[in-house]
Amino acid sequence: MAKKPSWGLIILGIAALVVVVGVGLVAVAGYVIYQQFAFQTTTTSVSSAEDELAQVAARFADQPPLLEIRDGEPVLNRQRQRSSGAAKPIDALHIIVWQPDERRLVKLNIPFWLLRLTRGRPIRLSGHGSDGESDPISLHITAGNLERYGPGLVMNHKDADGKRVLVWAE
Length: 170
Hints:
Elements (H helix, E strand, L loop, with lengths): L6 H31 L2 E4 L2 H13 L8 E4 L2 E4 L15 E8 L4 E8 H5 L7 E2 L11 E2 L4 H7 L2 E7 L5 E6 L1
Antiparallel strand pairs: 1-5, 2-3, 4-5, 4-9, 6-7, 8-9
């Protein structure tokens, strides 16, 4: 006489399979999201960093930046025109920061879907510098504002000490 299979073991096996597949899917999704951010920090020479920044800025030579730094705060540039008609969709916000004292070039790509999750709150960026400074910078602009202006140069700022921040939307 053949023994009947235990339904409890079958259900437990199916549940274990679902958990393993679920963990695998979460791991793959996490890896894809991590790659979308593509955070890179490199040590480079002054000339190569300036060349790279100039090359990116040259793409937007005919367009004023959306934000300017006045009195240490980002302010909307009134010379920048909103996109006429339906603006092209923005896929990502790209940021390059040059720190000449450390010869460090930092690149960060933020997927725009992530910025949409801010739900109308201003975009805030923060970093932990070598001087211990970690106050977030509020750009005083929302993801919705960026979408209305469309892809283009968001900020191109250079400090008196040579630090430079280049932000653009694509």
